[in-house]
Design goal:
The structure holds four protein chains of four kinds. Chain A has helices spanning 2-7, 24-29, 34-62, 73-109, 117-140, 153-157, 162-189, 202-234, 247-280, 288-301, 317-345, 354-377, 379-385, 389-419, 425-451, 466-496. By secondary structure, chain A is mostly helical. The chains are: A mainly alpha, B mainly alpha, C mainly alpha, D alpha+beta. The structure holds heme-A (2 copies), dinuclear copper ion (CUA) and copper (II) ion (CU).
Chain lengths: 561, 102, 225, 371
């Protein structure tokens, strides 16, 4: 494929690009090029997604009937646990940052590479190592603690391979940390001349926010998992009450990371959606500064609300109040984003290309997912809803309906840049539709089942819930097949897809000002940025609603002071 | 930012201070300050530790002479640690018998 | 530390291909290390939180157990570490002014002090093992205070000091790496980022101990045995 | 029987309406915003669809007015939800004074239930309609969660500690009892039924098991058998060990200064590991720790109810010590609670008197409405 890519490139394109610059395993496994590392991530992340998806399908298959006739109970427990662990830690968290972020951040800010290319490669290897440990755990017998690893079940009572899986997650954590570190340093020090903070694409802003959480949150889950593993080994520790420990402390430490982690999952996706909405309606984003800073706000406030997972856990009522209050506060920045995206469409020139379809789907589904988050943040209501399928529905709406949609949108949008080939538009739109329908059919019934009182993590459930579960399973199979389609045509397009020009969508972003696929050094000459983000029309034609000035403030790069 | 070279004098001065504080904290630990108010020993010990840490950060680690960004990063780290402590402890403190032995 | 040297000893010229100039590279290195240290703060933070909560829960047991630790050895180690911090700072200084011999000398002293710390810690650990104070099946305690709770103290003690010692070992590795390249004359007044940011790391490890010492060894002394 | 709305769980506690009310409020909000946004989007997407491949719309910078508008309004709405949710939660949290106590012990994978009158059940709970019921729950092993959808309430059951949960059933019938906190292999099997009966039927049912001994007498027997008497005295008047008469609900001064409230947790803890809290003046560690091997959680509960029975009066009064002043004037008619003793010590010691096994609770069983 590489050769064919270069042949019919537009003139300004170099003969050599990052893909055909060196062949063979070694040129990939030892590469320091952020673009190639992104491809490595893409491959491994997709594998884990399939695995997690297969588990998901097994779950839905089992839940077709109330009586657990497909597996043993403990098999089922392992299935949903491993589904959760893989999807969260090995798919959704790395998905957008490590693939799209890795590929695009340097290009978008006009740098040759990330600040620490070797560290970048190292984080991929760490990720793989962590993955291997987890897979090892699965193969040797699996884990059945639920992805939340609650003590004392995980420390003392579960007789599954908790430690192995724990080590896997522990190791994987450092991959996240290093990636986040790399992004932060890169965004601070590697911006091209003229690329001020307020000229950065919002994709970069949201990744900056995400990196903050990576660096500040992940270490805590690392140490927590470590303590858990030791406690399981040594049969003493600080979590199991029989040793004088406190199980609630584990929940605090776990959620201190794992709630911010949910924003790790959504923020990059929000960044993608901001790009898509602006670019496919050929408008600068409405209220750039607000969208930019809402990302930071989400990252910061996201650290203050973890206790909302513990309303009935034995946490003090007053702490419950505080956490509930803050949870509502953290919803506001998300709201701001949603409204700004909508406003951006106003008087735009909106195209119906596949990425845009995903972006619109994101807004709708994330909205529902987010609003149902408010149900759960409301103390009195959460008491009834917690640990029911309502939760399951909530987080699939935000994680699948939100993040996954954003990820797919992003993949389609940048596919020409990444591979130099176009995907088949017709098929793509069709798949998008199937996925949208399948998704809602899968997860909407779960809200109802949840309110009716169907607890989560149930292998055998009461007959009256069957109708809803059958609907859900039907939806899941549609969703699954829908997701199969892109997998097929993406792979297909790598060889047979239409050759992509440097700028197939006719957009101003820096990443579209280099050839597709870009050369190893990204740009022939370091670009000098003289335009605002999303500047489609010359500034003089800017029309100002209200008082706000366009978000350009002269940036004082911190290193100068 | 061209780096600022700290003179050796300052290094030795800081070192001296650190030594004094170390001696002080050991000394303070053995006299019963709880008579003053409950937990006074802890307060003293921690204050001294914080002072020592600050000295190291400011001078040995050159933060006093570093970029604004560096300072922001340092403060952020401490701030987030604060978040973790304050909110978690807020739970334990507000349990009527949250902190009695379990 | 990874962040630092990975980048710099790669290319023959000190400037890595993807940076525009030394200044940018230096800045990136030090910011990188600072961000890494923040992550370290949170990493140890989890343990400090656990410590505080259980100390508040089990004041008696913790005091008793803490008094059982050998504060003299702990104190000596504190001094050792602070001195090593000084020598590290001086090593950086001589790297900055480009005096190779004293730089190498001070790096070596730092390394030796680090080693001393570990040896002393080793003796302490040995003592605890001998007295069956290592948490687990073999744990045995007949001082006053509920054994279960005392055991939790030692659990936290070993977790914290153990992780700290691990960081020391890594630090020693880094320093020996620095010595190696310093003797090759790699570091110049223009280019010495690795020394500098390794220094940051070393000082951080020192700071952790500055907190561990009073918290683990001293609090509760005033109550006497 | 289903409720008038399709896809709604049954309502069988005085509490259901409040939760449902909040639920409908949020459903309404969600519907509103979903429609608002999606209709706007669809409208824009059609009206401003790209007409020529080259057209470039004029940029719009943004509007401070709009931004403030759509940050403030959502915030206010969010606060309204917060306040409503919190008020419901507090209603749940307030313990009734005159509740009938029932002891519940969870263990992988069953619920063991014991009435103060002695009846024991497994995975079944029989209660009278229209009477406030207070469960005191704990677990032998991992965390479980006592969940009755029809009552719109649940509470985690945490090892090493007591949790309380209460509700008032409004409608006779059989309702699902689920374990809602994942607890291992048979988590989904760890459930049963809550049977709500007319008071008369309930008394029938009670008298059915009248011959069984009450937790108090069982506790008293254990008190003899386990040799507690040798130190705490035959009637708990004390001796080598601290006296137990009037201890429950009082403030106990410990070695090392601090005073703690003698609630269920305190007593359980003094049995499980006595060294951890030593009553002032009993320095030398005489009392052995009783682990699960000697005393199951159920046994401990029996001992506790015996010790409760030793302090009929004291248990009163200091309940409010730990309840937030803010709550004092809160209305008492909450129905179900889902807070741990931490949250509710005050309340549940307060009604420890009301429901004191000897004085009230036992009659509380027999004298329940209708007899
Ligand atoms: C991508 C992941 C993601 C995201 C973004 C969110 C977002 C939110 N989540 Fe979610 N959540 C999860 C993933 C996520 N969650 C997961 C995985 C769990 C389960 C963990 C487990 O137990 O396994 C969970 C569980 C969970 C709980 C615990 C439930 C329980 O266990 O009892 C709570 C409780 O407060 C909660 C709340 C919220 C809130 C308030 C938001 C907010 O951030 C949402 C903000 C967005 C909006 C509000 C929508 C847009 C706004 C408007 C359209 C304007 C109108 C707005 C207002 C009027 C305010 N979530
Ligand atoms: C990123 C996060 C993520 C994602 C993407 C998903 C995706 C899906 N999840 Fe997942 N889920 C979680 C995170 C996620 N889940 C978590 C954290 C839990 C909690 C675990 C716990 O309780 O501990 C959970 C739990 C959970 C449950 C509850 C289990 C229980 O509580 O008993 C269910 C039940 O329906 C479910 C279903 C699904 C389905 C149908 C999908 C679908 O969207 C999957 C679709 C994807 C594919 C199908 C794979 C790609 C397609 C192919 C490989 C083609 C071949 C396959 C077919 C054609 C079938 N999930
Ligand atoms: Cu018990 Cu789930
Ligand atoms: Cu959350």
């Amino acid at each position: 494929m590489e050769t064919s890519v270069t042949t019919t490139q537009p003139i300004e394109a170099p003969r050599l690009n990052y893909l055909n610059n060196g062949y063979g395993i070694k040129s990939w496994l030892l590469t320091r090029d952020h673009k190639r590392i992104a491809i490595l991530y893409l491959a491994s992340v997709s594998l884990f997604f399939m695995l997690g998806g297969i588990y998901a399908m097994l779950i839905r298959l089992e839940l077709l009937t109330p009586q657990g006739d497909l597996f043993q109970s403990n098999t089922y427990n392992k299935v949903f646990t491993q589904h959760g662990i893989i999807m969260v830690f090995f798919f959704l968290i790395p998905a957008i940052p490590a693939v799209l972020g890795n590929f695009l951040i340097p290009v978008m800010i006009g740098a040759k590479d990330l600040a620490f290319p070797r560290l970048n490669l190292l984080s991929w290897y760490i990720y793989v190592l962590g993955g291997i440990f987890t897979l090892w755990a699965l193969i040797s017998g699996g884990v059945d603690t639920g992805w939340t690893f609650y003590a004392p079940y995980s420390t003392t009572y579960s007789n599954s391979f908790v430690i192995l899986a724990g080590i896997g997650i522990f190791i994987n954590g450092f991959s996240s940390i290093l990636t986040g570190l790399n992004f932060i340093v890169t965004i601070h020090t590697m911006r091209a001349p003229g690329m001020t903070w307020f000229r950065l694409p919002l994709f970069v802003w949201s990744h900056y926010a995400t990196s903050l959480i990576f660096v500040l949150g992940t270490p805590v889950i690392a140490i927590t998992i470590l303590l858990l593993a030791f406690e399981r080994l040594a049969h003493v520790g600080i979590f199991d009450p029989t040793y004088g420990g406190d199980p609630i402390l584990f929940q605090h430490l776990f959620w201190f990371y794992s709630h911010p982690a949910v924003y790790i999952m959504i923020l990059p996706s929000m960044g993608v959606v901001s790009e898509l909405i602006a670019n496919f309606s050929r408008k600068n984003i409405f209220g750039y500064t607000f969208v930019a800073f809402s990302s930071i706000a989400i990252a910061v406030f996201g650290f203050l609300v973890w206790g909302h997972h513990m309303f009935v856990s034995g946490q003090s009522v007053y702490a419950g109040m505080i956490f509930s209050f803050l949870s509502f506060a953290v919803a506001i920045p998300s709201a701001i984003k949603v409204f700004n995206w909508t406003a951006t469409l106003y008087k735009g020139s909106i195209s119906y290309d596949t990425p845009m379809l995903y972006a619109l789907a994101f807004i709708g589904l994330f909205l529902i997912g987010g609003m149902t988050g408010l149900f759960l943040a409301a103390l009195g209501l959460d008491v009834h809803l917690t640990d029911t399928y309502f939760i399951v529905a909530h987080f699939h709406y935000v994680m699948v309906g939100g993040t996954l949609m954003g990820y797919l949108g992003g993949l389609h949008y940048w596919w020409p840049k990444i591979t130099g080939r176009m995907y088949p538009e017709g098929w793509a739109r069709f798949a998008a539709l199937v996925i949208f329908v399948g998704f809602n059919l899968t997860f909407f019934p779960q809200f109802i089942a949840g309110y009716m009182g169907m607890p989560r993590r149930y292998h055998v459930y009461a007959p009256e819930f069957q109708v809803l579960n059958v609907m859900s399973s039907a939806g899941a199979s549609i969703l699954g097949t829908g997701l199969l389609i892109p997998m097929i045509y993406f792979i297909w397009s790598m060889r047979y897809g239409r050759i992509a020009s440097a700028n197939p969508w006719k957009l101003p972003g820096l990443e579209w000002r280099t050839s597709s696929p870009p050369p190893t050094e990204n740009f022939e000459v370091t670009p000098i940025v003289t335009w605002e983000a999303y500047e489609f029309a010359p500034p003089e034609s800017t029309q100002v609603v209200g008082k706000l000035q366009p978000g350009d403030k002269p940036d004082v790069p911190a290193l100068q002071t | 930012m061209s780096e600022h070279i700290v003179s050796r004098k300052i290094y030795f001065a800081i070192f001296g201070a650190l030594m004094v504080f170390t001696a002080l904290t050991v000394f303070a630990a053995f006299i019963d300050l709880d008579r003053v108010f409950h937990g006074a020993n802890t307060v003293v010990a921690l204050t001294i530790a914080v002072i020592k840490a600050t000295l190291v950060v400011l001078f040995f680690m050159h933060v006093r002479y570093s970029s604004r960004l560096t300072r922001v990063i340092v403060v952020a780290g401490i701030f987030w640690l604060g978040i973790m402590f304050v909110l978690t402890v807020s739970d334990y403190m507000t349990r009527p018998n949250g902190l009695v032995p379990q | 530390m990874a962040v630092g040297h990975v980048e710099t000893h790669s290319a023959q010229t000190a400037l890595a291909h993807h940076f525009d100039n030394m200044e940018q590279q230096r800045e990136a290195g030090s910011i990188g290390m600072w961000v890494f240290l923040v992550q370290e703060i949170m990493f140890f933070g989890g343990l400090f939180l656990a410590y505080s909560i259980f100390r508040a829960k089990f004041p008696e047991a913790f005091a008793a157990a803490s008094n059982h630790l050998n504060w003299k050895l702990g104190g000596i180690n504190t001094v050792v570490l602070i001195v090593s911090s000084l020598t590290m700072a001086l090593a950086v200084y001589y790297a900055q002014v480009g005096k190779r011999r004293p730089q190498i000398w001070f790096l070596t002293v730092t390394l030796l002090l680090g080693a001393t710390f570990l040896v002393i810690k080793g003796f302490e650990y040995a003592e605890k093992f001998r007295d069956h104070l290592f948490p687990g099946p073999g744990f045995h305690w007949e001082g006053h205070g509920d054994p279960n709770q005392v055991q939790i103290f030692f659990w936290i003690y070993f977790a914290m000091t153990g992780l700290h010692a691990l960081h020391m070992i890594i630090g020693i590795g880094i320093i020996s790496y620095l010595i190696f390249y310093a003797r090759r004359g790699r570091f110049t007044p223009e280019y010495h980022a690795p020394v500098e940011i390794s220094g940051l790391y070393w000082h951080f490890v020192d700071i952790v101990w500055i907190f561990l010492f009073p918290l683990l060894y001293l609090l509760g002394r005033h109550l006497g045995e | 029987m289903q409720s008038w709305l399709p896809f709604m769980p049954e309502k069988a506690s005085t509490f259901a309406d409040r939760v449902d009310g909040l639920y409908f409020y949020l459903v309404g909000l969600t519907a509103f915003f979903t429609l608002l946004i999606s209709i706007t989007i669809i409208f824009f997407v059609i009206k401003y669809r790209r007409r020529s491949p080259t057209e470039v719309p004029r940029p719009i910078a943004g509007s401070l007015k709009l931004e403030t508008l759509w940050s403030v309004i959502p915030f206010l709405i969010a606060m309204s939800i917060f306040v409503w949710g919190a008020s419901v939660y507090f209603a749940q949290y307030r313990m009734p004074k005159d509740a009938m106590e029932i002891y519940v012990v969870g263990k992988q994978w069953m619920w063991k239930i014991q009435h103060t009158t002695g009846q024991r059940e497994i995975n079944e709970l029989h209660i009278p309609v229209g009477r406030k019921i207070k469960l005191i729950l704990t677990t032998e092993d991992v965390i479980h969660d006592f969940f009755v959808p029809a009552f719109r309430t649940k509470a985690d059951v945490v090892p090493g500690r007591y949790t309380t949960l209460w509700f008032e059933a409004t409608k006779p019938g059989r309702y699902h009892l689920f374990c809602a906190e994942y607890c291992g292999t048979n988590h989904s099997g760890m459930g049963g039924w809550v049977t709500v009966m007319d008071p008369t039927d309930f008394d029938q049912w009670l008298s059915g098991g009248a011959n069984q001994e009450s937790p108090v007498t069982a506790g008293q027997k254990l008190f003899q058998a386990q040799g507690c008497v040798s130190c705490h005295g035959a009637q708990g008047e004390g001796g080598k060990g601290p006296p137990l008469i009037g201890v429950f609900g009082s403030k106990v001064k410990l070695e090392g200064g601090e005073t703690v409230e003698a609630n269920e947790d305190y007593i359980r803890n003094s049995i499980r590991n006595p060294q951890s809290q030593i009553v002032e003046g009993f320095r030398q560690p005489l009392m052995p720790a009783y682990y699960k091997e000697q005393l199951s959680e159920e046994h401990v509960l029996q001992l506790i109810s015996y010790i409760k029975s030793l302090s009929p009066t004291k248990a009163q009064g200091n309940g409010s010590a730990t309840t937030a002043p803010a709550l004092q004037n809160k209305e008492q008619t909450g129905t179900a609670t889902t807070t741990t003793t931490q949250g509710t010590t005050g309340a549940n010691t307060k009604d420890a008197a009301g429901s004191n096994p000897v004085i009230k609770a036992q009659p509380g069983g027999r004298k329940s409405p209708g007899q």
